[in-house]
Amino acid sequence: MQMKDFKARISGEVADFSSDEEFSMGDVYVFSTEKDAAGSEVLWAMFDRWENGVMILESSSRDLSLFDLWHELPDRFRYYRLTTREELKEYVVGVISYECNRCL
Questions:
Q1: Residue with more model confidence, 103 or 18
Q2: Residue 84: CB partners within 8 Å, gap ≥ 6?
């Protein structure tokens, strides 16, 4: 149920991307495996940099509870869009909570 609700919040247009696209360090994006993000696997991720043609993420999450830190964007995620302001707030709260719990 939770994952379905999570995907239902993903709306708006997504676009194909390549390594020469401009992404901003620290911005949070929604990545998906299909152009119709609502019907595909999604990943929320904070962009860090390009390294040898590979996108490096500072953090990412599929459910805003568990986060992976400092890793490459998996190849299966081809489409993206910038998060809304509300989604960005949810992401920041989730990653802060995750970091705090890791330290306990």
A1: 103
A2: 12
